[in-house]
Every structure is written in structure tokens, then in C-alpha cells.
């Protein structure tokens, strides 16, 4: 397995991969369609493992991890194609959760030792 990568490194790795093809990134609308397709595949796997719809014996064995990886790749492509820094986007979202939504959920009690 490779070492842990930052989000910036993952975005750069995907950009280097896509740069080798004349077609480049898909349009935002096509990318959204791909993201939806990958999300559907993830939902199917989750339903097989945790839902009421077991996998048919004729279906290929895939994992939730594999489907999450596919979805992460497409999300990274989508962000790259729109020049969005996913680390910055993540920081903004975490700031929102830590400020606006800080009292929305019941916190686990911290015990003092």
C-alpha cells in the first residue's frame, strides 16, 4: 500500500492522469452524470451488504471500498475540472459544522480522569 496522501496530492495525481488524454476532463454535466452513476453503484453494494437485497450469484463481487474509491475519483475529477481546491472546501465545511452546527447533535460525554 502507498503512504497516506493529502487531498492536494490526490488532486494532483488525478490531474496528471487525466492530462495524458486528449479528451481531458468531461463537462460538468457529464461529470455529474458519472458521479450519479457511481453513487448508484455504491448504493447497490451497501444494499447487498446491509440491506434486504442479497447479491445474485451471477453478479461480480465488488466492495463498498472499491465503489467509494470510484466515487472519490469522480468527485476529484469534478473538483479539478472546476479548479476547486478540495482541502479548502473541506476546511469551509468543517468551519460550518464547528460553528453554525456545533450544538445540533448530542455530544458524547467526556469523562475526566
Structural features, described:
By secondary structure, the protein is mainly alpha-helical. 60% of the residues lie in helices and 0% in strands. The chain contains four helices and no strands. The chain has helices spanning 7-19, 28-50, 64-81, 86-99. α1 packs across α3 (64-81) and α2 (28-50) runs antiparallel to α3 (64-81). The chain is extended, with a radius of gyration of 18 Å. The N and C termini lie far apart (38 Å). The model has no long low-confidence stretch (mean pLDDT 90).
Largest sheet: none
What series of H and E elements makes up the topology? HHHH
- Which structural class do you get from the secondary structure elements? mainly alpha
What radius of gyration results from the CA coordinates?
Answer: 18 Å
Overall pLDDT confidence: 90
Percentage of residues in strands? under 5%
Give the number of helices.
Answer: 4
Number of strands: 0
- State the low-pLDDT regions, or none: none
Distance between the termini: 38 Å
Amount of helix: 55-70%
Globular, elongated, flat, extended or rod-shaped: what is the shape?
A: extended
Amino acid at each position: 500500500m502507498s503512504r497516506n496522501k493529502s487531498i492536494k496530492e490526490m488532486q494532483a495525481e488525478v490531474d496528471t492522469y487525466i492530462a495524458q488524454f486528449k479528451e481531458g476532463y468531461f463537462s460538468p454535466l457529464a461529470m455529474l452524470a458519472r458521479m450519479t452513476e457511481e453513487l448508484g453503484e455504491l448504493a447497490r453494494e451497501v444494499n447487498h451488504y446491509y440491506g434486504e437485497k442479497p447479491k445474485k450469484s451471477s453478479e461480480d463481487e465488488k466492495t463498498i471500498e472499491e465503489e467509494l474509491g470510484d466515487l472519490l475519483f469522480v468527485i476529484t475529477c469534478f473538483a479539478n475540472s472546476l479548479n476547486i481546491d478540495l482541502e479548502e472546501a473541506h476546511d469551509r465545511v468543517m468551519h460550518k459544522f464547528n460553528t453554525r452546527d456545533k450544538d445540533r447533535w448530542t455530544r458524547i460525554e467526556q469523562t475526566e480522569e
